Fold these 2 entries.
Entry 1:
Amino acid sequence: MKKGFSGLFIIIVVAVLFNSCRKDPSLPEEKTPYSVTYINPRSIFPEKYGMPALPADSHLTEEGVYLGRMLFYDPVLSIDSTVSCAGCHAQQNAFSDPKPYSTGVFGLTTNRNAQPLFNLAYSRVFFWDGRQKTLRELALEPIQAHNEMAMTLPYLRKRLASIPRYRDAFNKAFGSEPDVFNMTLALEQFLLTIVSKDSRFTQMWPGNFNILTQEEKTGLQLFNVLVDEDPVTGALRGGADCFHCHGSVFAQANNPNFGGIANNGLDAVITDKGFGGITGKSTDIGTFKTPSLLNVGLTAPYMHDGRFATLDEVIDHYSDQIKFSSPNLNPQIKVHGPKQRLLTTQEKAALKAFLLTMTDTVFTNNPAYKNPFK
Amino acid sequence: MKNLLTATLIVGFAFGFQSCKKEQKPTDEAPKVLKGLTLNILPTWEGSTMVTGKMQYSKPDGEVLQLRTWGMILAKLALVKSDNSLVMLGDGYQWVDVASGRLSFNYPDVPVGTYKGIQFQLGPDSAANHGDPTLWPANHPLNGNLTGLHWGWAGGYVFQAFDGEFKDSASATVTKGFSFHTAGNVFNQLFFMPFNFELAGTPKTAVLEFKADEFFKNPIELHLKDKSVSHSTGNDEKTLMSKLIGNASDAFSVKSVN
């Protein structure tokens, strides 16, 4: 009896001591009303791109990305249910619009060309005029723009809440009824996962030149070499110096203050202020976000106003038609003024061949980005 | 039996309380006394604050320029103690970007002591210079996508980008571009800025003056109308860059530590 009592006493003491380490039982248990499947960013972003700075307050989840994809393709986001994000950002065109200006609700058109959507996790400003700094803010603009989707956010919330598939999808992704804030997070998540990484250009990086043809190598050389001046004739020669604004594995400068936002000499007289219209600074007038050249073969027409229908026209511009009197012309271009580079026909063809190595059809056919309703 | 019970209780108590304790790291050394130091970079032209986008900076030869970009990758950024030993600030790397106002850097943990100056190297050493810029975290000064100060697989980092426009004279109407991109290991030079100061008591702020006008004079006066471009490649451009960086020996100084 004594032995039994002692043993029981020891067990009770040890049990009490261990129990004392537990949380206060009067506190409510943490509830997890929904469960999500987190996505490892390393499965999205390739090693050669490095890890981007992702939003700290919104982790990528299978449910969030899928909801974002549904929203991206669903015309219910527009006031008359006719226009979706995908209507102006088509996957086969690297999520750009083949028209210079996109058509929104009621046949209204946009003021600028729709930019392609990929590798946005590595960008720091968005839209041609760099007016937004996060994808969640970006997402709200076309939804509310009168000439795009013309939706009001309170009405959109009500509409989404009335659709069972969205009640279900929001609950799975966020454990909530449909609401505008979580809608922007879902769209942001989907946009972040859109990555183009399988072009021959990307495979070549950083120096696997053997996969290029001789003509493409010549184009690569032109792309990455500085413009030089012939000491005898004074004519410009050497490279075409594309890399200052379109360097790196992204074929894009992402520092807005160093090539990421620039004036490339399209017009002597500025009619669209671009970034200057946002900052109000005279030194920003006529400058626009530098686009990535990845998939450039799929994203015609080109420039903020879609003025160039073909890549040949783009190359002609940089070779022969720079407006050196354009205010705030990028210094890298201006240093050679007023001389034009004047590429030869062969050089232009080589440059175009190299640019076409940036086409990524794995990306444009990736089922993860396709319309989930089909 | 009584002894056994007592021993069990003691072990039980000890074990129970031990399991509630937080894990503590071993303390091998006495904790250092630390103070905060903020470095403020002050870009200047002839002693006045220099800003981007103003065509107002006159050179001795009459040329007038405006700045559009002034970015720098600093390495080995460190305080120099009176015994010549170094206290590295962070990991020693920093990215200065005048156009975006990235000019202030806070280091909360700097040992108290007596210092005789601050140093930095313009650009990283060869290994980092030709390493993979995507391996650095997204917000690190050596992440090429963050700064744009990287030339792809062949060229390594741009240690300093100094770009803008200039006119031949104040009355000239035509503007031209200038662009000086410092790169290549021959130019990743160390700059020491002497200044005696103590770190003790309250956190301090050091103001570092970066004098752009010094690039163009003393000992060699540079005229932009003669040549206004150097990317540190090719003989002509390397010669021009060596003059520019040679002039920079007086371009960086500690203005105050308070």
Note: The longest helix of chain A spans residues 2-19.
Entry 2:
Amino acid sequence: MKAPTAEVEDGAKPPRSLTVCLVGMPNSGKTTLMNALTGGNFHTANYPGITVSLLEGRSRPELGPPISLVDLPGVHSAVDPSPEEELSCRVIEGKNTAVVPDAFALVVDATQLERHLKFAAFVARQGKPVVLVLTMVDLLKRTGQTLDVARLSEALRMPVVTVDARQGVGASRLLERIRRATEEVQEPGELAGLGDDPIEAYSGVRRLLRRAGALEQDPKVEQDSLTARIDRIALHKHFGFPLFILVLVVLFASIFWLAQPFMDAVDGLFGGAGDVFIGMFPDSIVTRFIAEGLIGGVGAVAVFFPQIIILFFLMTLLEDSGYLARGATLVDRPLSYLGLHGRSFVPMLSGFACAIPAVFASRSIPTLRERLLTIWVIPLMSCSARLPVYALLLAALLPGAAGKAGLSLAAIYVASLLIGSASAGLIGRIAFPGESSSMLAMELPVYRVPRWKIILRMTWARSSSYLKKAGGPIVVIAIILWVLSSFGPGTAVAGLDAGDAAPLIVESEMDASFAAGLGRIMEPIFRPMGVDWRVGVGLISAFAAREVFVSAMAIVFHVEGEDDESQSSGLLAAMRTATFAGTDQPVFTPASMVGLIVFFFFSLQCVATVAVVRRETNSWRFATIQLVFYTGLGYAAAVATVQGLRLVGVA
Amino acid sequence: MIEVAADRMNLTDVSASEWREIDRLEGPKTECRRLMDLGLTPGERVAVVRSTPMGGPIIVVVRGTQLALRRREASWIQVK
């Protein structure tokens, strides 16, 4: 399916068709509604404040003439807003030139009418057509409420439409009503008369609801009983925290257990494809380029896609159920001790998938200090791009011991959390001394049974956007590396015959290639880490994206899928036999491999992350300091590890 | 400010599942305004549902919504 979504950038020109903004409080179901209206793939998490950028989409053709829809981040309060709340408020007030709404779809959680209608007053005051959209109507039974929609509409003097966004019911009726509202003369409605003062506004809302008799509350039901029962365990005094740790351990461990069969399949597929290709065509430079450069380079990384997709799936599942908000509540205290915030938890956890969405997700953190500190620690979280690198190095380090390799990997994940936390505590005290004055005041959504369709759709959206992002650099770097390592300066071969016009570039052995020439110049940098220039070439190319290291290794060590051998076992064999040029000293020793793992643990080898951090912090200084600090730290730690291990007798 | 009248009580003093009426908010102005925007206005009924381990946030119910409040925030909310 073609994704009709696009991030709205500043300066984008307003579309010609009707523009409708979905507005509401966090967790009102806006993004799920957006999904139903556009049939597009959106981030629809059951966690307050998850929408971190404006999502734009076009209504599905079945729903009538197209309407351009913009999903705005949820707003708790227009007072002292977080950056994403501020963005929404500016759009609602018509102060943002990128998005100029013709009408609003005001999304309101039917089970929390008072709170949501109070916010609605802010939107109603803007004088633009507004249609009130009631969501979560199916949950009214659980909260002991009965609602008369016709009376509500009458009382508010505003069109009201109910939808079940999760089922997609009511979508066409809503759009029809919005079209009609933009043609009618707009009367301000009762909500517009409510003031800004929260006490007056709330009593005004209550007065309106009472007068209409629209809402009845069963006095025996005070909150959703299912949520209360689950929270009794999830937030239990003694069991709450161990359960939380258990959930995280299961999350990370199952990435490896669940992915194994898929990884074997992908590995075999690429290994086989290379052989078939070589067998089908006559040996030529093009054949070899495709077999070695493209299939080899891309295949080395593709093996790890199943793990990445499973990670995205499990995180989406956790979000949609409502548990993530509980996790954030549980860790608020320890995180705030480190200068972070309960809301830092979701960005940090996302950082285990990819730093880029994680940096975006930190927009929901209210204070600048905590936001910057969260962005500071995100690159330390062991992102999925490191996974292929660790998996390769651990397989080489611990041959035949999958159990030990798995445990080592789990240890690396835990260490990245602990060291990230320590780094936050330390840097927070140095860079931002003094007490934090932030607030938590976070809404805990009700638990809901996950809807598999939505979760799978979102897992696919996240995975495919990740693959699109990572795929480009992997292919480009694979091509560049293959060319650099397959060709060399012509004079090196034909230099003796000065009279002839010697070709400037000739096909050459690895040792005489451009890559070798460049690598040898830089070799003194990599020697202290216990590796040669070939690994150095891999480390440099990994700045495009960390997983490129694996395909770079496959290319510089000239791995082809030989006979029955699959891609990754071919690379492992090549690594085992690799020696420093002119000696029989192996390159990949236990010491040098541990050193490489340490380097990848700290180093910020990701151009995209640096660019996103620069954009989100609006500071080249912050992004540069972060890049230099982590990469320098990684290098120093790797050299110290290798030299230290050698001192104690580990080669 | 050391002496506290015996009848003065804030949300952190309320035992679980006991409904109280909010009397007033005493704390930093912007923060209290935000709490009121979330529904914690004077005159409204509020209950502490549970407290989380290790001195973490407390969970309160107000206007049918569960909110996680840090103890510092909860202590601004005077109840009767």
Note: DSSP finds 25 helices and twelve strands in chain A.
